[in-house]
Amino acid sequence: MLQVNNVTFGYSKKKIVLNNFNFTLNEGEHLCVMGESGCGKSTLLKAIYGLVNLKKGEIYWKEIRVLGPKFHLVPGMDFFKYVAQDFDLMPYTSVSENIKKFLSRFYPEESEQRTQELLEVIEMKPFANTKVKNLSGGQKQRVAIARALANEPELLLLDEPFSQIDNFKKNSLRRNLFTYLKEKNIACIVATHDKNDALSFADHLIVLRNNKILINDTPSKIYHNPIEKYVAALFDDINEITIDGKIVLLYPHQIKIVEHSNLSAVVLETYFKGSFWLIEAEFKNQKIFFNNSAALQKRAAIALSFTESL
Ligand SMILES: Nc1ncnc2c1ncn2[C@@H]1O[C@H](COP(=O)(O)OP(=O)(O)OP(=O)(O)O)[C@@H](O)[C@H]1O
């Protein structure tokens, strides 16, 4: 189990970046960390990997204490792997060689088999012999993930793992990777801006704000009961509407057009979203957004209904 106990850290004395962090993660579980830019997601991964010296608190993996660079010649814990945003690959060697570098040279057959298995996970078999310098940013990102998995770490730390990968590949890669990690019982912490990493694949979600843990719960509980607009906005456009003197948060799919109601609005703009249209409308002097199956004329008068239940 990973234990993060009362962890406080700042790069300088004046500014705290991780303010009294506490949480645990069991073996094989997946955690997503979300929050606005600069809230400390990457720094948290670095602290867990042992790349910074904590100001206060301790981090343990099972019984072993994670120690910072003050205590290690080569910082970082052996049984963790960390994929940073800058990949750190060997540009002049092939994709296969980059993966094999972390596998034992004494067992060439096993090493080859494992490399093939990982090439399949990242869907890069056709590029096995391509030099890394000739790959796109997204392809390099996939190689970095495979390389981190080569030695089957006990905990994998991923910083924005799919940020450079196109949507089509992203979905299948996410499914491959997270299924593989569960099969191998590898715990995983993903720092991400992408709700899809959290909603479908994480067992737990931590939301950070102002360098503190704002909430730690399951993704579905956080999605269904966002404690404030900041949290809901991580998942979708969010409407903050006053109904009967009470402020409610509504996702766009919770607002519908009806034939008659006393909730009238005027259409401002319509955006094509593929399987639906996102409508921007004015309701009681505020802008709201909702989903609709058809486009609407600008300035059309409409009647709405709100569903608070999801
Ligand atoms: N090496 C560093 N030296 C000094 N300050 C740093 C360093 N790295 C990050 N910071 C600062 O620490 C804070 C947290 O940065 P961090 O990269 O952890 O945020 P983040 O949530 O991962 O952001 P993003 O979503 O933009 O990647 C920011 O204010 C950042 O400027």
CATH architecture of the largest domain: 3-Layer(aba) Sandwich
Q: What form results from the Cα inertia axes?
A: globular
Specify Rg, calculated over alpha carbons.
23 Å
Distance between the termini: 34 Å
The CATH class of the largest domain is Alpha Beta
Instruction: Work out the number of β strands.
Output: 17
Average predicted local confidence, pLDDT: 92
Largest sheet: 6 strands, mixed
Any idea how many domains?
Answer: 2
**SS content category:** alpha+beta
Low-confidence stretches: none
Order of H and E elements: EEEHEEEHHHEHEHEEHHEEEEEEE
Helix proportion: 10-25%
Provide a count of the helices.
Answer: 8
By CATH, the topology of the largest domain is: Rossmann fold
For this structure, the quaternary state is: single chain
Strand order of the largest sheet: 6-7-8-3-9-10
Bound molecules: adenosine-5'-triphosphate
Keywords: ATP-binding, Nucleotide-binding, Transport
Domain ABC transporter: 2-235
Protein name: ABC transporter ATP-binding protein
GO molecular function: ATP binding; ATP hydrolysis activity
Could you please describe the fold and organization of this structure?
By secondary structure, the protein is α+β, with helices and mostly antiparallel strands. The protein folds into two domains: 2-229, Rossmann fold (3-Layer(aba) Sandwich); 237-306, Nucleic acid-binding proteins (OB fold (Dihydrolipoamide Acetyltransferase, E2P)). It is built from eight helices and 17 strands. The protein has helices at residues 41-49, 95-100, 108-121, 137-149, 167-183, 195-199, 219-224, 229-232; strands at 2-9, 18-25, 30-35, 56-61, 64-65, 80-83, 155-159, 187-191, 204-209, 212-217, 239-243, 246-250, 255-258, 264-272, 277-283, 286-292, 301-306. Strands 6-7-8-3-9-10 form a six-stranded mixed β-sheet, with helices on both faces. β14 (264-272) and β15 form a beta hairpin. The two termini are 34 Å apart. The model has no long low-confidence stretch (mean pLDDT 92). Adenosine-5'-triphosphate binds next to α1.
